[in-house]
Each structure stands twice: as structure tokens, then as C-alpha cells.
Amino acid sequence: xxxLVLPTPRRSFLxxxxxxxxxxxxxxxxxxxxxxxxxxxxxxRVSDDAWLERIRGEHRQVFxxxxxxMGFGAAYALNxxxxxxxxxxxxxDDLTAVLVFRHFAMPLLLxxxxxxxxxxxGMLHANDPDTNAPAERNxxxxxxxxxxxxxxxxxxxxxxxxxxxxxLALSVLSGLAAPNAGVSAEEAKAEWAANLFPGVYVAPxxxxxxxxxxxxxxxxxxxx
Length: 224
Hints:
Elements: H1 11-29, E1 59-65, H2 72-88, E2 95-101, H3 112-117, H4 120-124, E3 127-128, E4 133-134, H5 152-158, E5 161-166, H6 167-181, H7 185-194, E6 201-203, H8 206-215, E7 219-222
Parallel strand pairs: 1-2, 1-7, 2-5, 5-6
Antiparallel strand pairs: 3-4
Helix pairs in contact: 1-6, 6-7
């Protein structure tokens, strides 16, 4: 991974990101000027927070991932787990790490097919060290930093780790990437949601997930 080039996204992409967000707001996300009529309690939208039920144990931490950061977010969670095991001789049942992939980190939870079809490597300025060109595969899920050969799939199955994707980032970024695949924003959003790695939960937004994890006893760690 030493040849991996991940510079901060250029101003042009940030402008596109801002424009995409503005378009969503203009299309119905902006708050109305008049106070909304009260809705019946039975009509209130309820988020699927099933992942919160998996938070257990005395030691709990949520990791807030907002950039690719060379894939180190997953390593931070595993460092937390291993450190507690070493320092306090505890087991997996005593620990929970919640990884929230939001903002530009969210596409790290998409499979190789999505990276190729939607040119995600170019979007995130992630170059493949094998080609020195924008990556057409997910560079991060098959080799967690400092843990050679460890994949996200193994981490999900073997470690007390919960992984949550930001639904807002999924909506905005898939819409921005839709022209790369020649599909509509709605088609892109549906395809991205269907091609998250197995075991990934989707929250309405990443900041919502971070807050809910803290409400369920997790301390906070900014993971870049």
C-alpha cells in the first residue's frame, strides 16, 4: 500500500458534492418556511436501529470515519479490541467497536463491481498501486492495514465489530457518480445499497449513527 496515492479531493469534486447536496435539498429535503402540521404518532417514520441491539459488553467505542484515510479506520477498531484484551484480559463479549463510514469513507463499503462501474477510484482520488491509475476495485476491504491478509468479511465474522454506512452519503455520492455509469441517480442509489458488503447496516445519516452509538454507551473516536 506504500504506493497508494490518496490526496484530499480537489475543489471541483467538493463543489460537485455541495451542488448534489443542494439539489437534494431543493427537491424536498429543505425545511418548509411554515411550521409543518403535526403528524399522528402512528405515521412517524421509525429508523431500523437493529444494529444497536448488538452493542454489548463493558467496553464500547464508536469510530467516526469521514475519509478513506488509507483504510486505517478498520485498523483503529481492531487496535481498540486488541488493546483491551491485552490490558484487561477480557473476551469479545466484553467489547464492542462500532465503525461508522460516512462522508467520503462510505464507498469503502462497496464491492469491486461498484468501484469499477461508477469509477469510484477517480471520485475519491484513490490510485491503484498495480496500475498507477484510478482504482477500479475497492483497495481497502481485502487487506486491513497492519493486519496483512485480513479482510472486512473476516473482521465482520470474527470480531465484535458493527459496521454502519451513512445513508445520506450513499444518496449524495451515488447521485454524483451516476453519470459515470450512465444511469439515473435513483438507479445508482438502489444499486449502491444492494452492493454493500454483507453485514453492513445503513443509518439515515452517519452523524445519526454516531449519536445513537454514544447514547448506547459508546465512547467516541475520530478515525479520519
